[in-house]
Amino acid sequence: MSRLFRPALLVTAVLALFGFGITPSNAATSITVATAIGRQDGSTASVTGYVVGQPTATTTVVRSNFPNDYALALADSASQTSTSSMLYVQIPSAFRASYGLQSNPSLLGKQITVTGALTAYFSHPGLKNATSFTGGGGSTDPDPDPGDYYAGTEGKTGAALKSALHTIISNQTKLSYDQVWNALKVTDQDPNNTANVIEIYSGRSISKSLNGGDADDWNREHVWAKSHGDFGTATGPGTDIHHLRPEDVTVNSARGNLDFDNGGTSVAQCSGCTADSDSFAPRAAVRGDVARMIFYMAVRYEGDDGFANLELNDSVGNGSAPYIGKLSVLKAWAAADPPDAFEKNRNEVIYSQFQHNRNPFIDHPEWVSSIWP
């Protein structure tokens, strides 16, 4: 075919002629933050930079305790601290769940690209009316693997994959049981009310300040019941926030150390939950979450760090043995309820702010059937 006639170019030219504004993907470009700061003329541009905080005033950018999801600051360097070298980006409501820093604090230091109008925001060089946010591995990113975190798992299945993942996720920062209180106030924060946390089983939004042991308070629920392996609340599995969640005191007591299975009768103060003498089932919306926490614990704790070797079986009524079931039910729950934005964001927050390890079954749900066929 002659180089003078290329159908793709002809189609692009025709579409452009009729006002469709098509641009070949290899021609798409973005500008730097420095360029955007110097071009505050209201024109539309795509700007690529690193998230360095949230602007709250003309010369103030905070890097923690983000007050809301309404804005972020970009710079050409992830370590930039001078506000004069930052672009203040307004975040429209459609993008706040994925790119607001209160909901996605792990975006700090990540590189993203934003398309919008180059115009002042907070009386500072900015970008407003954004139409696109990309990059950064936000909570809706379909592939949230952070770089080469899972290097070494390639081509592995079954026991070999489980062993490789155990080595990877065992590299973690460990919390005390007291530190868990504050951690859960961040990991399980209600995205619609930043003063509250969401209880795992009941789904109730409750004030962060109502943590304690009284009726209608919330406390720290061990999804892998601590008696199943006799690890108590000692630093280790007893303080691992990948399976510790806020829950109503009464509902926590009703679950006790029951295994997980379908069936039973309704649980008071826990709509959609059921229980019988040897098993408990949470509401349908978090059954997959529960299953993936259990899978994590069975891979993380293999008996090589002074604690019991935690494993799954297909039984209920396991009591104080280091087992939890029912494996077949938990696999079905995981398949029926895949990871959602809240669960993915929680995994990111634990990784970036607290334990610095991940739940691999949130990142790769397909690994469940590989390890437990």
From TrEMBL:
* Endonuclease YhcR N-terminal domain location: 31-133
Signal peptide range equals 1-27
Highest taxon of source = Bacteria
Cite a single Pfam family from the UniProt record: DUF6359
Q: What InterPro entries does the record tag this protein with?
A: Endonuclease-I (IPR007346), His-Me_finger_sf (IPR044925), YhcR_N (IPR045939)
Q: Which organism is it from?
A: Kribbella shirazensis
| This protein's record includes keyword Nuclease | yes
UniProt keyword list: Endonuclease, Hydrolase, Nuclease, Signal
Q: What is this protein called?
A: Endonuclease I
**Molecular function per GO:** endonuclease activity; hydrolase activity
